[in-house]
Each structure stands twice: as structure tokens, then as C-alpha cells.
Amino acid sequence: MWKYFKDKAIVREARKNIQPAIRELYTYDIPDRVAAVVEDIIKEEGVVTRAYKDKAGAPTIGVGTAWTYPSTGEEIQAKDTIDISRAVGEAIVFQQNIDEKLNSLGIELNLNQYRALSSLAYNIGVDTMMNSSVIKNLQSGNVDKAGDSFLKYNKITNPKTGKKQIDPILVKRRERERSMFLQNTPNYIEPPQDKNSPYTPEIKQQPKPKDRKMLRLFGSNNDINEDVDYYYSDSVGDKVLSMFES
Which DSSP symbol is given to 183? Predict the structure, then answer.
């Protein structure tokens, strides 16, 4: 969606940072499916290292991170700046929450279904996605109808009028997600993470360039090494961008 920003300086930065962010992504020790989704999102959202307001008026930074930082829950402020490393780390933490929610469905998803649902959740919010007609149709076994339900989530709230309106950018994104969701690919074999063992990348406010960020797996909060700074989050504040089904 970075291609459609009116601020050309943001467009240039968002585009320029895509490849460095993808390289940064693969310095994390994370499941392949999570890396695949975050790479999708980086390409979709671009990477902006200073706070700005998106089309719906939401304070946004990094890889389309809106309202709050997933790693800390702190609100994004107008003058905030971050580096590419933290931008990618925040996207991974957010995907952690999506991953846990999708695993909780108990439905075997192929990789394209997983990617499409994650993209939707990243855009409209995890809780909104979990309560959507997409998930309801998927749970009832109607995959085609679930795919068609993606198309309903194509509205934003106009920050000037407060009214919902169809956004052509979201129309195209929902069509891409629907197409991906309905592609017939083999089910991924990688087992879901144990619900008591969330994976969380180590995120520093300003990490040293030479540092290699490792994703630490642990069985419980008591297993955390006290000598290491962790930003652990059980859940991400689900302030969504007012994109709802009418």
C-alpha cells in the first residue's frame, strides 16, 4: 500500500527500505511460515522509519504498524522514529499474535491460506479477523465462501466525515488475498508452536548494527534469562483501522 501514499517522501523511503528490511528479516530464527508472511507484509506496506498518519488517520510507523508498538503496547507518537531493525521486529511480534490465533482454530491451513489470513489480520486487526465471516465460513468447511468473504472488508472510515467508504486500494488488496487464499497448495507440515511457548524476538530501541537478533523459545515466563532484555507480549492491542464489514 506504500505506492499510494500522497507524501512522495514517504513513498521513496517506504520503497527504499524494502530490500534492507527483507535482509534484516532473515537474521531472525523464526518459523518459515512466519518469515513468509512478514516478507509479504514488508512488500505490501513498505518500511517507514518515522511516524505518519495513514489514509484513515491512524498513527503509523515501520511496516504498517498502527496505533501501538506490538512489543511494548506503547502508543505511537507523532515524532517517533525507529530503525529498520526495530520495524521488522515489531512486525514479527505482531505476526506472533496472528499465528497463535490461527493455530487456535484447529484447522489445517495450507501455506497460501495462512498467508492470506495473516495479511487480512495485519490490515483489519486480529480480533476483527477472528470474528469475521471469513473465519466463520472456514470453520463451517465452506472454503470458497470464505474466500469470497475477503472482499467484504474493503472499507475505511473517512477521518474527515467519520463515514465508512469503499477504498479502491483495499479492494485490490482483498482481491489479491482472496486469490492467494483459494490457491490449492499442499498443507504445511510444520507443527504449530505450543501455546505456552510463544516466540518473541529480542527487540532493542536502537540495536547495534553488528548484533544478530535471535528468536528465543521458552516454555514459560519463568524460563526467561534475566541477563537478557526481552520485550515480551502475550497479546497485541487490537486497535484496528476502522475497516469493517458493513
Answer: S
For 159, what's the count of Cα atoms within 13 Å in the CB-facing half-sphere?
A: 8
Q: What is the pLDDT of residues 157-205, one digit of tens each?
A: 888 899 999 999 999 999 999 999 999 755 433 433 333 333 334 444 4
Q: Which cell goes with 175?
A: 482481491
C-alpha dihedral, 2 to 182 to 100 to 62, nearest 10°: -10
Q: How far apart are CA 246 and CA 243, in angstroms?
A: 9
Angle CA 20–24–27, to nearest 5 = 150
* CATH number of domain containing 107: 1.10.530.40
Other C-beta atoms lying within 10 Å of the C-beta of residue 194: 10
Q: CA–CA separation, 67 vs 170, rounded Å?
A: 19
Query: Sign of dihedral through CA atoms 83, 73, 55, 174?
Result: positive
**Closest to 161 in 3D by CA, of 57, 47, 26, 12:** 57
As for how many domains the chain has, the answer is: 1
Answer yes or no: is 231 within a domain: no
Q: Which residues contact 26 (CB under 8 A, 6 or more apart)?
A: 35
pTM for the full model? 0.75
Contact 120, 151 (CB under 8 A): no
